[in-house]
Amino acid sequence: MASLNRVILLGNLTRDPELRFTPSGSPVSRFSIAINRIYTTTSGEKKEEVDFIPIVVWGKQAENCSQYLNKGSLVLVDGRLRQSSWETKEGEKRYAIEVIAQRVQFLNKPKGENRTTSTLSTSNEETMIGDEIDDEIPF
Question: Distance between CA 34 and CA 32 in Å, rounded?
Fold first, then answer.
């Protein structure tokens, strides 16, 4: 039987990406995203919970994440889950799950750029594009 391991997450970075290089020179970037969920309990009370998900990005995309993202940036991550396990010095077994990103889409302007409202002309009418529309990043 076939298997499928794919996750798509939308959230905000909890810290700036950390860029490192493997001994062979491959770039790898690590960061976490916060994903908020609001729900109503059976008693009618609204609650909010937050999940913090670790993300790992490889290659040129890792360098781009490090260059253009910072704490608070909104991203869409498409990837797969990976579980790691290790044993502590005390002999306890530990587990961690992280997302290996295959694609990270930036949903904010790159850091250092100001947001401005631009005008898009379509046919004979003009439409204002504001902050709610994402600009394409050319890479």
Answer: 7
CATH 3.50.50.60 fits 7-129, yes or no: no
CB count in 10 Å sphere of residue 8: 10
pTM of the model: 0.73
Rounded CA-CA distance 22/28 in Å is: 7
Helix (H, G, I), strand (E, B) or coil at 136: coil
Residue 43 has pLDDT above 70, yes or no: yes
Q: Alpha carbon of 16 to those of 52, 57, 73, 87, 93: distances in Å?
A: 14, 13, 9, 29, 29
* Residue-range domain boundaries for the chain: 7-129
The H or E element that residue 65 is part of is helix 60-68
Both tokens of 81, joined, read 């889950």
